[in-house]
Amino acid sequence: MKPLLITIDGPAGAGKTTVSKALARCLGYRYVDTGALYRGVALAAKEKGVAPEDDDGLERLCTGLRLRFVVNEDGSRLFDGDRDISGLIRTSEISMLASAVSARPVVRKFLFDLQRRLGEEKNAVFEGRDMGTVVFPEAEVKFFLDASVEERARRRYDERSADETRTLEQIAEEIRTRDHNDRTRSHAPLKPANDAILLDSTAISIDQVVQSMLSRIKQVD
Ligand code: C5P
Predict the structure, then answer these.
(1) For residue 29, is it within any domain?
(2) Residue of minimum CA distance from atom 5 in ligand 1
(3) Locate the Cytidylate kinase domain: which residues (predicted)?
(4) Does 218 fall in a domain?
């Protein structure tokens, strides 16, 4: 099979992470979670006290960041320099802050360059919001994975950690807010690329989504 770049975009909770990892495993490809990079910027902004509206502060912050993925026995981990920040970026506070900083062009520009470098070798599945539209418009295969808000919230609720205190309705509300932010921002809003294959996982299993993607990928090759 020739080296391919595969992109999977879609809203929060549509199953992109599970699907992207499964697809990458089946194909022997790298898996790159670009949402983690936005979360990494959000974590740094929180720790350094930089407000999401402070573009100069965000620019300085980004210049000092050393974000990189390290694949080890725990999977793909996000490091800032020597510090493993994978656990710290998975809170509800960081989700909302990531959504806020991701609307700032200065942050998008910084991560655009980083993502392009990560994609140079191809043989990768990139998951995010603007992979097929902005970062890799030349990707050989593009998917847009969606599901109803109710189904996405239910999945997040079923997978909640032991210390999660939010109700199903509160999780649904966070998803609605992030969807709204991501779809209506002026820079790289969440939307399918014109040549993306649209899939809806509301009524089908993740396994069926992966099988359907694999058959579409075989057609491209
Ligand atoms: O995918 P995840 O939910 O971890 O992403 C966190 C936030 O990062 C999203 O709500 C979105 O605002 C932002 N993001 C983005 N572009 C991407 C990936 C994520 O704007 N390619």
Answers:
(1) yes
(2) 35
(3) 6-219
(4) no
Residue 118 lies in a domain: yes
- Which residue range is the domain that position 118 belongs to? 5-212
Q: From the CA of 32, how far away is ligand 1's center (Å)? A: 12
pLDDT digits (tens, 9 = 90+) for 24-59: 999 999 999 999 999 999 999 999 999 999 999 999
Q: How far apart are CA 101 and CA 134, in angstroms?
A: 17
Which parts of the chain register pLDDT below 70? Answer: 221
CATH number at residue 57: 3.40.50.300
pTM of the model: 0.95
Report the b/e string of 41-78 with b at 16+ CB within 10 A: bbbbbbeeebebebeebbbebbeebebebeeeeeebbb
Ligand 1 atom closest to residue 9's alpha carbon, by position in its atom list: 21
